[in-house]
Amino acid sequence: MSVSKQSEAPDSGSNSASESSGTKVLVSLAAAVIVLFGLSRISSIVGPVFLALILTICVYPLKQRLIARGVPAVLATMSTIVALYAVIAALVASVWVSAVQLTLLLPQFAPQITLLGNDLRVFLHDSLGIGDDQVRAIVEAVDLRVLLDTAYGLLGSAMNIGSGTVFLLLLLMFMSVDATYYPTILAVVQKKRAPVVDALTNFAKLSRSFMVMTTVFGAIVAALNLGLLLVLGVPGAGLWALLSFVCGFIPFIGFWISLVPAAIMALLAGGLPTFIAVVAFYGVINSLIQSIIQPKFVSGSVNLNMTLTFLSVIFWSALLGPLGALMAVPLSLFARAILVDSHPQAAWLRPFIGDVNDAKKMLAEQRAAAKAAKPKAAQPRP
């Protein structure tokens, strides 16, 4: 009887341990859902705050260089604030002008849009055999009234971003001033929470690298697209170039968002040859710069795998809206810094997220061992 009780004791202990771990997982998931729901409810605050943080991180080296050259800290801080304000002012003005241009551009192509809708209806119904209800829903998506409503909504949003812009400008000013003390604060915290400081420092470095390189390559792509659209005579070339620049910050999906309106406008203005030229050029430029050249400078240092990067765009855009899509990579880097990098016991998760340096070394060693194990070909006899 005692033997059976002793044998049951370890089983009961293991069962209670498994139940405890399962309970912790459920509680953690429930807490995560509550936190994410709360973030979505205050997305209008969280998005600008994080954007201000990223912009402050990006311009902080400028402040350091000015101070290193003997510029007083106050003047260096004011210089970074002015630089940030100039960038924000240029972006807001560009969005406003583009929205106005779009509302003036669409009515000029009312006959072409109507003809395109009729041709699309015939193709879907007669060639593909799609039902009337589905055809009607698809054709209504390119209806002029729907496009105009969208354009006017965009214009209204552009005119009503004043309060959000003021909030962002105030945040940038306060963060730029407080950034003077960040190195000292981190040095103090380093003594007590070294992993946390290392994780946040690495996050700042990676985010700055991503934003700067994406801005540079996005500007190159936008300039090339602008030149093509001007040569082909596509209306609203500046608008579509600006769209391609902004969408460059959205991995994988941004290319398609920038391509569709430019291609449709090319089809309306120049016909099928212009449409094919725009699609082909956009595809070549995207494949060459954003898919081959840019990842060599960005992806290796960011250490986020393609699956996680794609899912991060969907996740953060659903949580924070369009700003979440633009900031998807820095947001994911911040989440990784808080949840993984700052906890040494969670380091085993890094390979699943995208840090495959150790895996590459192991794979190279395995290939070398397999190559060495292959029997050498017999030497021919003389």
Please provide a written account of the structure.
- This protein has 382 residues and is mainly α.
- The chain has a domain at 193-352.
- It has 17 helices and no strands.
- Helix 9 packs antiparallel against helix 15.
- It is globular.
- The model has no long low-confidence stretch (mean pLDDT 80).
Low-pLDDT regions: none
Structural class: mainly alpha
Q: Describe the main β-sheet briefly.
A: none
% residues in beta strands = under 5%
Mean pLDDT: 80
Order of helices and strands: HHHHHHHHHHHHHHHHH
Number of strands: 0
What is the share of helical residues? over 70%
What does the radius of gyration come to? Answer: 27 Å
How far is the first residue's CA from the last residue's CA?
82 Å
Number of helices: 17
